[in-house]
């Protein structure tokens, strides 16, 4: 699978011949100033919850690409009302798409849309197909529900927030990695704002001491996972 990071909690995974873009927030992120949103291609846009730092560029990219927005029913409805022609509303459970099986799983966070309307339940995504499986936790603290994930799939990697304050920090993400039985972790949701700045070297050492590999992706760079 190919992974491209666009800053904050926004990234692309290319798998099964499809481009899956998660939580598009780019133009509002000063750290992603060199990313041209108009050049991003996507077949699907997967949104974990309704906060502005996860849906900021959703409508623009959906309109540019014709991508289908997959999100909790309330977020999908809001997306349709705000210019996204193709939406697929979901709730906790599993469903089959042409890129593989998707499970929408609980997250411990909040969710409201940029206009203050109800954003439904926040969640995370587990994607599995013949190429492997991965988990994106969305914005969350560590929760015991994560222990259910390895009952369904063996994860190749997981994408976890590590910045703290609004989500898990590194210590909690290490526990989450234990819960999901995955030792290859891609860290996101860090450095964008002052309150979520991290010490990269110190955090990497924490993960290494726990026997896990932490990848802190560089904005705009593609890596193979």
Overall SS class: alpha/beta
Number of domains: 1
Report how far apart the termini are. 5 Å
Poorly predicted runs of 5 or more residues: none
Q: How would you describe what is shown here?
A:
The chain is α/β, with parallel strands linked by helices. It has one domain (2-224): Ribonuclease Z/Hydroxyacylglutathione hydrolase-like (Metallo-beta-lactamase, Chain A), CATH 3.60.15. The protein contains 6 helices and 14 strands. A hairpin with a 2-residue loop joins strand 9 and strand 10. The longest helix is centred in the last third of the chain and has 11 residues, at 170-180. The radius of gyration is 16 Å and the shape is globular. Keywords: Hydrolase. InterPro entries: Metallo-B-lactamas, RibonucZ/Hydroxyglut_hydro, UPF0173, UPF0173_UPF0282_UlaG_hydrolase.
Give me some keywords for this one.
single chain; 225 residues; 6 helices; 30% strand; globular; hydrolase activity; RibonucZ/Hydroxyglut_hydro; hydrolase; UPF0173; UPF0173_UPF0282_UlaG_hydrolase
Brief synopsis:
This protein has helices spanning about 50-55, 60-65, 75-80, 150, 170-180, 200-210; strands at about 1-5, 10-15, 20, 45, 70, 85-90, 95, 100-105, 125-130, 130-135, 155-160, 185-190, 215, 220-225.
Topology:
Elements: E1 2-5, E2 11-15, E3 18-22, E4 44-47, H1 52-55, H2 58-65, E5 68-72, H3 73-81, E6 87-90, E7 93-97, E8 100-106, E9 123-129, E10 132-136, H4 149-152, E11 157-161, H5 170-180, E12 184-188, H6 200-209, E13 213-215, E14 222-224
Parallel strand pairs: 3-4, 4-5, 5-6, 10-11, 11-12, 12-13
Antiparallel strand pairs: 1-2, 1-14, 2-3, 7-8, 8-9, 9-10
């Amino acid at each position: 699978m190919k992974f491209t990071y666009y800053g904050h909690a926004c990234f692309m995974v290319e798998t099964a011949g499809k481009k899956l873009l998660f939580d598009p927030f780019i133009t509002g992120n000063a750290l992603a100033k060199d990313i041209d949103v108009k050049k991003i291609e996507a077949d699907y846009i997967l949104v974990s919850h309704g906060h502005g730092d996860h849906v900021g560029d959703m409508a623009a990219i959906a309109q540019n690409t014709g991508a289908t927005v997959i999100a909790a029913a309330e977020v999908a409805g809001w997306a349709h009302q705000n210019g996204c022609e193709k939406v697929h509303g979901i709730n906790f459970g599993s469903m089959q798409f042409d890129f593989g099986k998707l499970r929408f799983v609980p997250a411990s966070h909040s969710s409201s849309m940029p206009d203050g309307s109800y954003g439904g339940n926040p969640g995370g995504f587990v994607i599995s197909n013949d190429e492997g499986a991965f988990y994106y936790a969305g914005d969350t603290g560590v929760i015991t529900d994560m222990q259910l994930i390895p009952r369904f799939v063996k994860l190749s990697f997981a994408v976890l927030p590590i910045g703290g304050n609004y989500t898990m920090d590194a210590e909690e993400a290490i526990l989450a990695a234990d819960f999901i039985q995955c030792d290859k972790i891609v860290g996101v949701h860090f450095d964008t704002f002052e309150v979520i700045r991290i010490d990269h070297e110190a955090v990497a050492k924490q993960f290494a001491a726990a026997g896990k590999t932490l990848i802190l992706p560089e904005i705009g760079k593609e890596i193979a996972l």
